[in-house]
Structures are given as structure tokens and as C-alpha cells.
Specification:
Length: about 270
Amino acid sequence: MTQPTPPQPTPPAAALLGPDASCVAQGIGPAPQLAILDQDNAFVQGLRAFLAQHDVCLLHARDPEELLAWIGHGCADVVLLDQRLAGRGGGTMLLRRVAEAAGPPCIMLSGTDDTTDRVLALELGAADHVLKSAEPRELLARIRAVLRRSRRPAVPEQAGGGWRLAPGMPGLIGPDGVRCRLSQFEFALLRCLVEAGGAPVARETLSQVVLRRPPLPRDRAVDRLVARLRRKVEPDPSRPFVVLAHRRAGYFFGGYPDRGSVETAGPPRGAAR
């Protein structure tokens, strides 16, 4: 006997909200819609009431599956995640799942100002990390900043060899439609290097622009991000030619060679049709 298919979460009615003039004036487009997964109902209710005063809709997901379903339906412009969610992996594991699904930018909420938690969240792709004790107006300002970054116009940028940056994925699209998907931070790093036009970009600058924080003592976060990016965009990561290191000056973009050379070297390891 065939088992009945369980009902799937449907988009919330709030997803049908139209544009709002005050949001357009802020430079963030139509009225933004946020989704949050946090087990502190009092915190969520208070935040929802505050955001409603500023024409921001906040949807409260009951569990990770509902949140991911909403993301799949395109119901959230930004996701707020409690880093200390109960369950296996907590908010950090869910952040990874949202990034793998190429979902909207995530802001990680934390009850403690722990450097390890903050660095981990940012390295896994969080767009920002905010203390839950922060003033609501600070959180709103950070939300608006994330929205402005995520909604900036997608300008095609050539990476050489017929490859171009695709901010909407985010990732790279090849001359034959081959796609190489990147995480938000990997794409931000690649874009920063491409925009530098082959000039070296210092690690300190990459940390500020890509990770949105100053480098920490003995900080290797940028180098680890470069290593992850190379595993995806280089045909042979052991012999990189797309993302190159400049001695004592950071990294620079080497670019893909002409079409024939790319065919000889092979496509990026992370490419897929």
C-alpha cells in the first residue's frame, strides 16, 4: 500500500507583500522579508514588533525543515539563525545547509561574544555575526547593510577564457554553460581579486572587504578561504594560475587563459553542467 506523501510547508502569506516606498528610499529595494529560526519566542516576538515599525516582515520558522522550505520558495531576503540552536550541529550546521543550497545571506545571532564562534560562523559563510543583546536598531542597521550588499546590481565580469562571474548563483559560468558554484565568501574573495585587475590585494584588505572584520593575531582565515576557492576554480589546485600568491603582498587574480589553453588545462574542478 502506497504511503501518503506528507504535506510540504507552503510559503507564508507574508511572502506576497509588495514594494514599500520607505525601503526603496533606504536603497534596499522592495520591503524586505526576513526568516528567523530561534527557540527564544520572547526575543523573536520583541524583534518582530520592532522590525514591523520599520516596514520589515519577520517570519518565525518552527524548525529547520520549515525554514529551508521557505528558502526554497524564495520567501526570505535574509535569514537570522541562533548559533546555539538545540539539536545536532545547532545553528552552525544549519548555516552550512543554507550555504550549500545557495540560499539568501545569513546573519548569525549569538548570546555570547565568543571569538571562536564568531570566526567559525563567518568562515562558514555567515554575512554577519550579531550579539542578541545588541540594540534592535543596530541589528536593523546590519540587516539593511546585508540587504544592500546582496541586492547590488549584477554586472557581468569577465574572468578570462570566456568565463564570467555570476553574482546571482554565486559562482562562475563558462563559455559552454558550465557552472562552478561558490559559497558567498568564496565568491566575494574571487570578485575582490577580479575587480583589482591583477594587482595584488593584501591579506588585511581581503579580511576587511571579504570577511568584514580586521585580521586577528596569527589569522589564517584568508589563506584557508583561498585554499577552498582554489579547490573549486583551479583545474589543478597544486599548480594554481587563477588565484596566485604575491610574496608578502597577499593574492592577485591571474585569470583564465584563452579558450584553447582552458581546453588543454581542463575546466575548474568544481565545474558542473
